[in-house]
Records
---
Amino acid sequence: MMHRIDAEALAYSYTSGQRVLDDVSTHVATGEVTGIIGPNGAGKSTLLQLLCGLLSPESGNVLLNKSPLEQYTDRERARLVAYMPQSVSPAFSLTVREVVALGRFPHLGPFGSLGTPDHEIVQDCLGQTETSHLATRDFLSLSGGERQRVLLASVLAQEPQLLLLDEPTSSLDLPHEAAFFRQLRTLSGRGLGIVVVTHDINMAAQFCDRLVLLGKDHRLVNQGGPSEVLQADILTDAYGSPLLVGEHPQTGGPFVTAPVGGI
Ligand SMILES: Nc1ncnc2c1ncn2[C@@H]1O[C@H](COP(=O)(O)OP(=O)(O)OP(=O)(O)O)[C@@H](O)[C@H]1O
Ligand SMILES: [Mg+2]
């Protein structure tokens, strides 16, 4: 079965009168990797939180499988949509295995204890993210990149249909970042829907099916395939600063960089 989220004309303000997202309509679906890009403060994290129901729009609608998001219970929603925030600082100390096990919450029975299948899923997700060797470590003792891989394991353990990730590779080295994006493609190949906010436009260009570009004015500038969206004039407009588009050395697809010394 296909699952999708439709956002219709979303607007949001944290402080009354100051829109941080204005008139944004888009959709995400299972089987696709959607990248959300745009400058700092454009509203990318806000959009992601609206898509998963952590925030409610000031105006506009978010539909999950054609029904308003607010009609779902938290548990129903969490079985369909998982969200990995931009940064996490747990209030108390948890081991890596405990952090990953938190992902099983929406699937547990009334007493909230993990059964054998849950433990197996946790183990499997540790394996998939190459974090098994960290299982007994305190989450807070991990490096930034290790934390990001553990958080991915945790949202995978939730076994959602749609996975919303906010800058999941911001602390990863280049080879780990490429491996992470390849893994996202594998997951989408298995039918999962992935939504990934990233500042790495070139990874997004290579690995995303669709890009959603938010501009510095908090509006949608463009959305579509990477070669459609990643054009110098469109990007320069969205970021309010010149950007250059060339060719990726391996794929020949768009390759984006900022000019040296400004223009
Ligand atoms: N909790 C909050 N209270 C008040 N303003 C907020 C809050 N969270 C975000 N904002 C503001 O809303 C705007 C959009 O923030 P958001 O985090 O969605 O941007 P972003 O596109 O994810 O940026 P970045 O690339 O830096 O992560 C910013 O101007 C930010 O300062
Ligand atoms: Mg953000």
---
Amino acid sequence: MYDIIIIGGGPAGLTAALYARRANKTVLVIEKGTFGGQITFSPKVENIPGFALVTGNEFAEKLVEQVLALEAEVECAEVLSIKDGEVKTVVTDSGEFQAKTVIIATGAKHRLLGLEKEEAMVGNGISFCAVCDGAFYEGKTVAVIGGGNSALQEALLLAETSKKVYVVQNLDFFTGEDKLVEQLKTKANVEVILGTVVESLLGEDELTGIVMRRVSDNEVTELAVDGMFVAIGLIPQNEAFADVITLNEMGYADSGEDCLTTAPGIFVAGDCRSKRIRQVTTAAADGAIAALAACNYIG
Ligand SMILES: Cc1cc2nc3c(=O)[nH]c(=O)nc-3n(C[C@H](O)[C@H](O)[C@H](O)COP(=O)(O)OP(=O)(O)OC[C@H]3O[C@@H](n4cnc5c(N)ncnc54)[C@H](O)[C@@H]3O)c2cc1C
């Protein structure tokens, strides 16, 4: 039996492993995809303290090396459920593992439009985060897809540095706050395209434009863009745990800054928990807090 099983090998889970191993706890990290998590999609990261510029993969490699050097165990498997009790049983698609405590660090997925080549173009013209990637489109033309608060905020931020920002929304109105819509109207380089959906993507390996269809009359137009920011929501990867911890109406794990869930001995860290800022730094901070809380729980 392990002291701590960590579900998810992104920045939150790997930082939790680092802190738990330094506290001499036995640790198993279970990852279903790529160790390093979402950041591995980013070719350029410029806001991790200590790295002026690093690729997401380089950063992830360093983090994985650091955790392996501390002799954390790792397993490639998808966690399907947790059986809660004094001993926690983590059920995966390749067997069951037991621990005294569990840290859920499963992150979130950005909702995609569902278009051909879209996933392959993430990091090659398609982004989800103006704070992270806006600087790469300085003086360039971008499209923001969506009409809620996130899309409006992304567009406002991009308008500061990009030459032209199109905001493409499927409905005939924005669903975000009026205050943000008013702010957007004051930006000379922003053009709003309502009642329009993105039908397909142009470019081979890198995005060069989008094909749009106006919903009212099915008119199809092409728009040349250097980048597309998709802001149509996030999907926290918490479905497997809905029966053991409380999730909020958006599916995020309810917890305070202390990373405690509603189930004793089960902690949560990173993008999958309810919070405002989802970045590498905040995920790492959660990982440290959750690991120390788990160590404290074990005693
Ligand atoms: C294209 C892109 C660019 C970005 N750029 C930046 C940036 O420049 N700066 C910045 O600070 N942030 C950036 N971010 C955001 C940053 O990557 C996330 O905030 C951070 O990775 C969150 O870390 P996490 O560990 O909470 O979750 P994740 O990184 O999502 O890791 C969670 C891991 O859990 C695994 N997992 C999920 N469910 C299961 C399961 N059931 N069983 C086993 N494993 C599971 C997933 O496969 C994943 O690897 C970017 C994100 C993207 C997508």
---
Amino acid sequence: MKILITGSTGLLGKALIETADRNYEIVATYLGNYDIDDNYQIKYKKLDTRDKAGYEYLFRDFKPKVVIHTASIGSPDYAEKNKEITWDVNVRGTQNILYICERFDAKFIYISSNGIYDGNKAPYGEEDEAKPINYYGQTKLEGERIVQKAKTPYAIIRPILMYGWPHSFERGNIVTFALSKLEKCEVVNAYDDVYLNPLFNRSCAEAIWKVVKEEKYDVFNIGGAERVTIYNLIQEAACAFKLNQDLIKPVQQGFFNELVKRPSDTSYKTEKMEKGLGIKPLSLKEGLCIMKEIRQ
Ligand SMILES: NC(=O)c1ccc[n+]([C@@H]2O[C@H](COP(=O)([O-])OP(=O)(O)OC[C@H]3O[C@@H](n4cnc5c(N)ncnc54)[C@H](OP(=O)(O)O)[C@@H]3O)[C@@H](O)[C@H]2O)c1
């Protein structure tokens, strides 16, 4: 099967590529100014999602059957400061690619976010009301609204906070930032008032591949097994990597002078992911243990 993955060098895109079925033929797009090596299965292509004509050409040439659209601006603070570009990438970029999918009969998998919830009524199931409290969340929800009107089969996947190993040239995540500080014996301050059920990036990729293989085109909230604070998450990571937990200090939202408030509790119900996709949410111990095993 021919598959197009946008945002292929991001945390989720990397996990999708690492876990893809060997029979899939993949074109993988990204944005940055770097080269990344192709192999027999994956062809990388630098192509901005705002470049509609570029994607039209790619579709005519490659003819993907499924598109997994992970490309996005993902930082709530960046989004708040750069509203125009965030709308262009997260909303118009999604619209562009969906529109081409409809014309070329490709199925569309849109990656949304826990950022669509306000955090006041956790745990969240797929049918719960979406009420974003920041601009990033608004753009992800607007993307969902566009996708829900699609004239082609679609799925909406909502990962919650992900951890895992990113490419060395990509942004880190809460766990990798903390590990690199703890390894240098530096103090790590972590929110003890933001709750989620953190998700290992490969676990999210596994759920997406299930959607593709079993044609489960539906809406899924994808999370890990435990509801914890970010402080608890970093403690678990320090324990798994045998680093000094005394260096981790609990702080409250506002400590980092962040521009944008994060929803305080967006933890998920995972029943639909378990029953509908047959994916067991990983515990933090399991996810972090795999992370340790695959460290390069
Ligand atoms: N990470 C999380 O904790 C989390 C939580 C909830 C939802 N999500 C959602 O999950 C998806 C994947 O997140 P992620 O963490 O894997 O993202 P990420 O690590 O920030 O990577 C984003 C990817 O999108 C690409 N990209 C950005 N702007 C683009 C554009 N204009 N055209 C083409 N490609 C572009 C980036 O390319 P370059 O790097 O080359 O610029 C990169 O490959 C996103 O939709 C995000 O909203 C993530």
